[in-house]
Design brief:
By secondary structure, this protein is of the alpha/beta class. Helices cover 40% and strands 20% of the residues. β4, α4 and β5 form a beta-alpha-beta unit. α6 crosses α8. The protein is globular, with a radius of gyration of 18 Å. The two termini are 28 Å apart.
Length: 225
């Protein structure tokens, strides 16, 4: 899961980034509304965590503008504004969830997984694809009931494919899901992770669509070959 955190408090932001990264998420941080707009314009994110008290613009105004422009990314408002009116205003402006400060990182991560689950049209966290079972919240991967050890990058790659069944993802879209902006990448890094995923879960788990990118293979393609 690729998360954009828009939070001007550096201490809170660093805690969020460390906590979510430790749980296998890829996280980018910006401190202003203008930086958030710029980041959303150059990369794809699965979900956004938005503080309302930003230094250059109220976060609620930013959210309204994003929704008016047609951006459908799930947004979780993270704020100290705790009145019922504030919560109603946030949700009516287009927020998908509203969490008050102070907060528990485990709850934040759980809420982000729930938002992504809703987007994918699932009622439970567990994702099943043929013999493959994956739980985004625990990062447990099973193939035919047997645990498979995946690296954090491999988990991110698998999750991006599972959340986009039937959709062809370009190399750049997959890189956005797997790597952070500050990660130093070798030219063949994505191909290496795809190779490892195929080796561990079966060649058919990732299909190459020539000239376009990659997509999740058919449900029976996760078998070892």
């Amino acid at each position: 899961m690729h998360v954009l955190v828009c939070e001007d408090d550096e201490l809170i932001a660093s805690g969020i980034m460390a906590g979510l990264t430790a749980q296998g998420l890829t996280v980018e941080h910006v401190a202003t509304a203008s930086a958030a707009r710029a980041m959303l314009g150059v990369a794809e994110f699965d979900v956004m965590v938005l503080d309302l008290g930003l230094p250059d613009e109220d976060g609620l105004k930013l959210l309204k503008q994003l929704r008016h422009s047609g951006l459908e990314i799930p947004v979780l408002i993270l704020t100290a504004r705790d009145s019922v009116t504030d919560r109603v205003d946030g949700l009516q402006a287009g927020a998908d969830d509203y969490l008050l400060k102070p907060f528990d990182l485990r709850e934040l991560a759980a809420r982000l997984h729930t938002l992504l689950r809703r987007v994918a049209g699932r009622s439970v966290n567990l994702i099943e694809h043929g013999r493959l079972t994956y739980d985004p919240s625990t990062r447990e991967t099973l193939l035919g009931g047997q645990p498979v050890d995946l690296s954090r990058r491999e988990q991110s790659l698998l999750q991006a494919l599972l959340h986009n069944r039937g959709r062809v993802l370009s190399s750049e879209q997959l890189k956005d899901s797997v790597y952070g902006f500050n990660d130093e990448l070798e030219s063949n890094a994505l191909n290496v992770h795809i190779h490892h995923l195929r080796r561990k879960l079966g060649n058919g788990i990732v299909e190459t669509v020539r000239g376009l990118g990659y997509r999740l293979g058919p449900a029976d393609g996760g078998e070892e070959s």
